């Protein structure tokens, strides 16, 4: 579903002076960015499973050790898109139901595939007992550090997203009413908390993980929310993409920087989060002002729509394809590792496409149709209808935030 997008020539004053962007709905470059982000995570997991050995393995590790920060980019993107599509008249109940419809059917299938893989080709991902698996099904396992990869190992990030979705209706209203100065303070505080997260986890009396405890990842999401609100109001004009992209690359590299001496404070993480946030805002600004990027092209849009399913299955495929090697770690020279990696990629993409078409879209349509039928029987004041095809938030006029970034099924 497409809603009209404001197009502004580069020569107009708005190109230099920002104005409110409340009428802008489609941000297709952010859909393409989701696929680029998934590729970073895919590359990181190829490294973790040691597809490449020798010098090729060293080079691959140099390029993709930081690929795990792709999840950080997903979290920022999620907050940005949800805030961009926020409409005050939508009820919290409607919002939560849309989020369930968006992620839960595919999540359940992913857990089932993970249990099948654990029982056959990849026994090393078996969980110790039923409780961690049940916690994963309910998307709460990340709150117990020892269970963070129970069930489907990749779905730990969904535990964080579920927490973000739970808190969003309570966060967005005060933030949407906040002054620009208050939003800037939120941005600075979010970056500081990103750097402090490892230190907080280290001194916390309750077991926490800076990587997987949802509360410690919340600042990344909140940062995306605050920047979207600043940008929509016209209070902030993001830098051009040609400047933001190098900063994002630098932030990616700085994620591997050491912590401050004698502490667990990780200033490099703040640089990573900040660089990625600038990239998201720059891409959104390019789309909003009629300067859509290559990420808005049709192929990237289709891949972006499949990215959620791809993310949920890619690690299972990588581990299954390499399961016949000792300990599941091929460590091959590059002429043999490249075809193996391409095979894993092809299988994961094909499986993701099938799940997207056969599970994700139909299940979401059915669940949202159920909500609309209930609303017709018992209408709720302020309830917002939603499109039957909506990966991260719900927007106005029945359009999901996924549709707001130019996709039909996910953010």
From TrEMBL:
The keyword Ribonucleoprotein does not apply. Pfam families: Acyl_transf_3. Residues 29-353 form the Acyltransferase domain. InterPro entries: Acyl_transf_3_dom, Acyltransferase_3. The keyword Disulfide bond does not apply. The chain crosses the membrane at residues 35-53, 59-82, 103-122, 154-171, 183-202, 214-231, 243-261, 267-286, 306-325, 337-355. It comes from the Bacteria. Keywords: Membrane, Transmembrane, Transmembrane helix. This is Peptidoglycan/LPS O-acetylase OafA/YrhL.
């Amino acid at each position: 579903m497409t809603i009209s997008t404001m197009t502004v020539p580069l020569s107009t004053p708005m190109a230099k002076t920002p104005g409110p962007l409340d009428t802008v709905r489609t941000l297709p470059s952010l859909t393409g960015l989701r696929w680029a982000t998934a590729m970073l995570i895919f590359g990181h997991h190829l490294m973790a499973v040691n597809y490449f050995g020798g010098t090729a393995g060293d080079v691959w590790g140099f390029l993709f050790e930081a690929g795990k920060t792709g999840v950080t980019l997903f979290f920022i993107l999620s907050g940005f898109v949800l805030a961009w599509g926020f409409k005050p008249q939508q009820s919290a109940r409607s919002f939560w139901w849309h989020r369930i419809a968006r992620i839960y059917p595919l999540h359940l299938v992913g857990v089932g595939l993970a249990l099948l893989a654990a029982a056959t080709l990849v026994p090393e991902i078996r969980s110790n007992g039923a409780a961690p698996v049940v916690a994963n099904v309910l998307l709460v396992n990340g709150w117990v550090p020892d269970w963070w990869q129970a069930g489907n190992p990749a779905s730990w990030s969904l535990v964080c997203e579920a927490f973000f979705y739970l808190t969003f209706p309570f966060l967005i209203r005060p933030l949407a009413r906040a002054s620009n100065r208050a939003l800037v303070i939120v941005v600075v505080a979010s970056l500081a908390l990103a750097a402090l997260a490892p230190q907080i986890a280290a001194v916390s009396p309750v077991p926490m993980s800076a990587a997987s405890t949802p509360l410690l990842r919340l600042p990344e999401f909140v940062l995306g929310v605050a920047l979207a609100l600043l940008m929509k109001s016209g209070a902030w004009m993001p830098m051009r993409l040609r400047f933001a992209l190098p900063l994002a690359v630098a932030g990616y590299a700085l994620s591997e920087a050491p912590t401050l001496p004698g502490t667990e404070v990780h200033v490099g993480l703040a640089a990573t989060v900040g660089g990625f946030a600038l990239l998201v805002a720059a891409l959104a600004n390019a789309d909003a002002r009629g300067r859509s990027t290559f990420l808005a092209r049709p192929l990237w849009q289709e891949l972006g729509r499949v990215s959620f399913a791809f993310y949920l299955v890619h690690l299972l495929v990588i581990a299954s394809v390499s399961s016949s090697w000792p300990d599941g770690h091929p460590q091959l020279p590059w002429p043999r590792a490249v075809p193996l990696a391409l095979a894993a990629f092809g299988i994961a993409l094909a499986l993701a496409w099938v799940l997207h078409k056969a599970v994700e879209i139909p299940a979401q349509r059915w669940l949202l149709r159920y909500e609309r039928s209930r609303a017709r029987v018992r209408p709720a004041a302020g309830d917002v209808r939603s499109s039957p095809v909506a990966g991260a938030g719900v927007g106005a006029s029945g359009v999901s935030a996924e549709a707001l970034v130019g996709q039909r099924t996910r953010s």
